[in-house]
């Protein structure tokens, strides 16, 4: 397996991988009925493309496939973006103009939770390395690819001078992976308690996924770690 940085030139290939392996099966997308396996979702694809443009994302490529067919098969990706203070509030304000009601349900939850549990205020940082999407081809799972993608993301963040990484993990499997790499739970949102004005659950996520976790990892200098330990 080879691991490479994702550039804008890989955008179409990455989106095709996500259509086949992530969009329909991610717990919140599935609960909202956002899209079918293999189908496109313009709002979600724009969200992914935005992260790719930050040039912090990593992909896993099957080297054997490249030798046999002369082309690279993407078997896993982690999409990472750069998050600055005010970005989440801006994204939330723009959400009302999005015509996809199912997309709005998902990102209204994510944005509002991040504003309520504000890592920028807690850690006093000017930007964060935002791990947004972690996906592995269904036929390649169980080979440690997701773990390696997260490991390499931490290395990319450290190389680029980030002090803090963040991830909104919506499923139990990604939550376990992040915690295994030293990420710490900062806040949680049980899906059963995310309800509308009538008390109805907005996103009926299927077990074993019962909550969203906002996780963080402090890196690049002991001053940040000491600050957290003192709290």
Short characterization:
The chain is of the alpha+beta class.
Report on this structure.
This protein has 231 residues and is α+β, with helices and mostly antiparallel strands. The protein has one domain (2-229): Gcn5-related N-acetyltransferase (GNAT) (Aminopeptidase, 3-Layer(aba) Sandwich), CATH 3.40.630. Helix content is 42%, strand content 22%. The protein has 10 helices and 7 strands. The chain has helices at 11-21, 27-32, 42-52, 63-69, 87-95, 101-116, 119-123, 145-159, 172-180, 222-229, and strands at residues 2-5, 58-62, 73-83, 128-136, 164-169, 184-190, 211-218. A 7-stranded mixed β-sheet has the order 1-2-3-4-5-7-6, sandwiched between helices. The longest helix has 16 residues, at 101-116. The radius of gyration is 17 Å and the shape is globular. The termini are far apart.
Describe the structure using short key phrases.
7 strands; disordered C terminus; single chain; Aminopeptidase; 231 residues; alpha+beta
Give, in order, the helices and strands.
Answer: EHHHEHEHHHEHEHEEH
> What would the average pLDDT be, to the nearest integer?
92
Spatial strand sequence of the major β-sheet = 1-2-3-4-5-7-6
Instruction: Using the 3D structure, state the CATH architecture.
Output: 3-Layer(aba) Sandwich
CATH class: Alpha Beta
Biggest sheet details: 7 strands, mixed
**Could you give me the name of the CATH homologous superfamily?**
Gcn5-related N-acetyltransferase (GNAT)
Helix content: 40-55%
Number of extended strands:
7
Class derived from helix and strand content: alpha+beta
Straight-line N-to-C gap: 41 Å
Number of domains: 1
Shape: globular
- Radius of gyration, CA atoms, in whole angstroms: 17 Å
Q: Count of DSSP helices?
A: 10
Instruction: Kindly estimate the percentage of residues that lie in beta strands according to DSSP.
Output: 15-25%
Which topology does CATH recognise? Aminopeptidase
Unreliable spans are: 222-231
Protein name: aralkylamine N-acetyltransferase
InterPro entries: Acyl_CoA_acyltransferase, GNAT_dom
Family: Belongs to the acetyltransferase family. AANAT subfamily.
Pfam family, one: Acetyltransf_1
């Amino acid at each position: 397996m080879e691991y490479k940085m994702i550039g804008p030139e890989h955008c179409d290939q990455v989106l095709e991988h996500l259509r086949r392996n992530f969009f329909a099966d991610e717990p919140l997308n599935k609960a909202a009925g956002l899209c079918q396996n293999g189908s496109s979702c313009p709002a979600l694809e724009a969200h992914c493309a935005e992260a790719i443009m930050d040039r912090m994302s990593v992909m896993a490529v099957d080297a054997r496939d490249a030798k046999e067919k002369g082309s690279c098969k993407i078997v896993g990706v982690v999409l990472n973006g750069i998050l600055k203070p005010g970005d989440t509030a801006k994204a939330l304000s723009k959400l009302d103009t999005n015509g996809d009601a199912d997309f709005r349900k998902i990102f209204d939850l994510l944005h509002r939770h991040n504003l309520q549990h504000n890592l920028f205020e807690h850690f006093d940082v000017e930007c964060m390395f935002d791990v947004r999407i972690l996906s592995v081809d269904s036929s390649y799972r169980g080979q440690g690819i997701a773990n390696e993608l997260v490991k390499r993301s931490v290395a990319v963040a450290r190389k680029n001078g980030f002090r803090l990484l963040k991830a909104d993990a919506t499923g139990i499997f990604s939550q376990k992976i992040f915690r295994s790499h030293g990420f710490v739970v900062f806040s949680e949102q049980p899906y059963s308690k995310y309800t509308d004005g009538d008390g109805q659950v907005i996103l009926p996520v299927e077990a074993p996924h019962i909550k969203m976790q906002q996780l963080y990892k402090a890196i690049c200098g002991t001053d940040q770690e000491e600050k957290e330990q003192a709290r």
